[in-house]
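--- STAGE predict ---
source: upstream dedup step, 1 unique chain passed
mode: sequence only
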Amino acid sequence: MPLYQRMKSVQSTLLERRSIRRYEREAIAEKDMALIFDAVRNTPTSYNGQQFSVIDVTDQALKERLYEMTGQKQIKTCSHFLAFCGDYNKIRCAARAKGIEMPEFENTADGLIVATVDAALAMMSAVVAAESLGLATCCIGYARTADPEGIARELGLPKGVYVVCGLALGIPRELPDLKPKQPLSLLVHPNRYRADDLTPYLLAYDAEITAYNETRTGTKTDNDWASHIVGYYSEAMSYNMLQKLALRGFDLKS
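--- STAGE serialize ---
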């Protein structure tokens, strides 16, 4: 049995999850990857359409090129880098083979949401399976935004397929502090979205994140929550994702 492998309870798998960016050189056992892929395969999807695919990147040279494109070091040091993609190529191929007229569902907002949700659910299936084995995971959104067409070329994606998110998998070499999350009172709203003033609760959480960043193990920062996230939004305004999606064969009309 690999040294890292220790089956965890459902509770610890879900509640002790953290993003880990440093990995040992040890490879992940094939049977463990098989479990992860079986979990991905059993993901619930819209209409059972399975509007997603996964590219499993283990070639070191390819991982290093993807690292150069994204700046995410964990891509080149992980054992497996998984690119979770929204995928309308497969259903189009099947429809064409059976002479079925295919509507332009992927060119609607709902179509884009459907494939994105499917791919995101599949990624979470992989995260839970991997975490249950004691493996390290790190979701990488930059795989979607850094260079969409360049990454698509590297991964050989046909038209109708786009990267939703990346996932680095490896043997953990660190155990970072557990990052504070918003309290349940801000996340779970009984029956209706709460109507009171959320400001004091959000500012309290903002202060908690600031304190965490100033005192956490490893690299410390003075980042708060609100300005850090809004700063990301400001940066993301320049991504022009509709234009990038058009290069993947998507032309949203409704």
